[in-house]
Task: inverse folding
């Protein structure tokens, strides 16, 4: 799973072979022992959880990079592997 960003101890990753596990553009975020999946579309948590402060930081990151991560997600799902 490629890491696409690391900030304040939070690792942001995007699976390219998610096989429909989450049926929308999303990222995976890890902080210490916590992990959550966030929608790229609206920043909502799809599964898992992070501490409140880290959740706010991930949502702010999504807002800043929403267009580029959404495009990356779409390309990864439509590009033949």
Result:
């Amino acid at each position: 799973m490629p890491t696409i960003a690391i900030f304040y101890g939070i690792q942001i990753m995007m699976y390219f072979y998610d096989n429909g596990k989450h049926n929308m553009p999303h990222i995976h975020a890890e902080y210490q022992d916590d992990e959550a999946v966030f929608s790229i579309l609206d920043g909502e948590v799809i599964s898992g959880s992070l501490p409140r402060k880290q959740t706010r930081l991930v949502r702010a990151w999504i807002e800043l990079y929403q267009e580029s991560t959404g495009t990356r997600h779409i390309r990864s799902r439509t590009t033949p592997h």
In short: The longest helix spans residues 52-78. The mean pLDDT is 83. The two ends are 15 Å apart (CA to CA). The chain has one domain: 3-76.
